[in-house]
Amino acid sequence: MLGILLGEAVSRLERQQHPLAVGLRQVREYVLPPLAVILVMRQLLSVAGKDSWVRFVETLTWVAVIVAGLSLINALLTTKKQPIKWQIHVPNLFFQIARGVVILAIGYHIINGVWNISLAGLGSSVGIASAVIALALQDTLSNLVSGLLLLFAKPFRTGDWIEIDGKQGRVLEQNWWSVTIATPTMKLNIPNGVLSKASIINFGQEGIWKSIFASFSYDDSPNQVIPALNTLTEGIYLIEAKDPALLSSYEDCSITYKLSYKVLPEKDWLVAAELKSRLYYLTKRYGLTMPYPIQVQYDVDAKLGIPNQIPQVLENRQQELVTYLRSLPYFLTLNDHQIEKLAQRARFKAYGKGELIITEGKEDEGLYIIFKGKGHAYLIDEQGERQIVDELEVNEAFGEMAIFPGEVSPVTAIADEDVEVVVIPAKEVIEVIESNNKFAAEILEYIEERKRMVRLAKGIKDEASPLISNNGRRVQVG
Question: 394: which DSSP letter?
C-alpha cells in the first residue's frame, strides 16, 4: 500500500517538475524492497536478528536510507535562491554538515547497532590520532570553527556586498574553509580564519551611495554651479537614486562640490567613468572654469622695458553665431537686426554621447538647433516602451514648445555622439514671432509637423491640420 501511494505521489510531482520527486522515488525503489525483506524474515520466517543474512539485508536497508535521505535533504534545503516557497535556504556549510551528519549517524548505527562492532577500543586510538591530526590541521580546523561562528553571528549572507580590510566584493559562497567574494575584476577566496579577525562592513544587497567631487573657480558662484551639477546624472539608468549637489569645501584656488548617487557597487566604475566624461561637457555647456595652472603671456614695453601681462581670453563666438543663423533657410525671413539680436542672446552648449539635451515632461529652455553632431528624439508610450520620434541631424531644430509658457516637452532628445547645439532663449523667439508673420507661420507649421510625429509614435491616428500643407511637407532647419 505504501509503495502504491508513493508511486502515485511521485508521478504527480514529476509532472510538476518538483525536486521532492527524486527523493520519494528513491524511497520507493531503494528503501521499501529491503525493508519488506527484513519484515518477512523477522515476522514470517522468525529468523533471528543476529543472523548474517538479516544483518546484510539490514545494512542494505540503511545504505538505501542514506541515499534517499541525501536526496530528500537536497530537496528540502537549498543554498541558492529558493525555487519553491517551502524550501529552506541555508549556507553551503550548514548544507554540507547536514549531509555529513546523516552519513555519520547511520554509518555508526550500521557498525555498532547492526554488526555489534565495539568502537570503544577504536575510540582511544582515534583520540590519539585526532590530537596529532589537530596539530597538523590547526589552520584548517581554525577555518572550520571560524566558519561556524560566522554562520551563527551572521555578519553577512550570500549576495551581500561587503568590505574586508579595504577589499570590497559580493559574497558568492561560504563553505567550511573560506568565503568567496566577487570584485569588479576578480574572485577572491578569503579563509574563515582571516575573516574572523578582520573588520567587516556590510553594505547589503542593494545599491550603495558613492560620491564624485568637482572643483571650480571662485569666479563661478555656487548658485550657478550647483544647478548645473544636478543635471550631471540625468539619463544614466544605472543610477538608482541621487542627492542634490552641495558645496563641500573652500580650497586655496577653488571651491569643491560633492555629488552623491546610489548605484550597484559592481557598476560604479562604469557610472564614475561616465560622470567624469560628462563633467567635461558640463563645464563647456555652462561656461564654468575648472582651476588649473594658467599660462600668462608677456610683452615688453619698448620705452620702460617692463613686461606687461596679457591675460588669455576666451574666443568670442558672437560673429560665428550671426554667420551661422544667416546661413539657415529657416531664418531667411528675418532681417539683419533680428538675426543679430537672436545671436546676442543665443549661446552654444556641448553634450557628450548619451547625455539628455531636453527631457520629456519638462519645460524647454529655448529653441535648440544642432550645430555639430547628431542625436535622436524619443518618447515613452503607455506600455513603457521607448518610441523614436525623430532623428536629429545637423541644422535640425527642436525644443519648440518653449514658445508656449507652461507647456512641457513631449519628447526627450539625447545625443548619439558629441553634440554642440545653439540655444536661443524662448523670450527672444517669441519676440521675433510677434514681429514677423512669415517666421511665425513657419514655426507653427513646424510645431504641427512635430505633433503629428508624436501622435504617430504613440500610435494615435493622425488627423488633418490646417497648419500642414497638402503635400505633408515637413519644415526643417536646413
Answer: T
